Amino acid sequence: MGVSMAQPETTTPVREQWSGQYGFILAAIGSAVGLGNIWRFPGVAYENGGGAFLLPYVIALLTAGIPILLLDYSLGHRFRGAAPTVFRRLGRRFEPLGWFQVAISFVIATYYTVIVVWAIRYVGFSVDLAWGDDPGSFLVNDFLRASGPGFELDFVGGKHNEIHSSIPIVDNVGVVVDRGALYHPGDSYAVPAGVSIDVLAAPSSAPWLKIGEAMDFVLAVKPRRAFPMHELINSAAGQAMAKGRIAWAAEQNGGALLDLEAGTTAEL
Known about the structure:
Largest sheet: 6 strands, mixed
Order of helices and strands: HHHHHHEEEEHEHE
Radius of gyration: 33 Å
Distance between the termini: 101 Å
Strand order of the largest sheet: 1-2-3-4-5-6
Structural class: alpha/beta
Helix content: 40-55%
């Protein structure tokens, strides 16, 4: 008596199809239009000539962007598979191109998640314009907290204070260290904008200086602590007078004199 063994039935899984054109169009737009188009493109266009930038952009879009996009859609429609499968069916040697697309998608999904979170956080920051006058520093130092080791320096001013009308005015810059931990104005009365100064090196003697102007400068900067500099050419009595005037000016805004002698240091 013979026994026949039934062969197991094999079924090919049914691949899902789009229910209509509108769903496909919306999905295509979602995959092609990203944050770069909305957030990055206007800035790039502005920095590269405004309307003039649109001409090479449109040429690149018509000759490369759209044709490659249509080629990608056509291959997917013809071979009905994921990217590695489609390129493998074209030829074994093309399969790495498909995996390269998968890798790109993974990388984009990874960093886009971070950028989306940044955008959500900035919605909250926009309520009171938390970034102030320096959005770049706010992003790097306050939001990302990515400032590197060492000192962060910001430069203010630009010109030396006038000594006399017969003497040419030379360049001079003041230096703000670590967003206000220390401010050294050099030979000028430049007041940093939008920065709270902890320690001010206040000029107290120079060919261009009047002690009343130095006091007004300390009043304008409003430091938490101030110490006189350029004072070694003064006599002992002159140094004492300058310290007293700078101390008074600092105290008017709740600050105090930082009494530094030559060779001593202070914690910032």
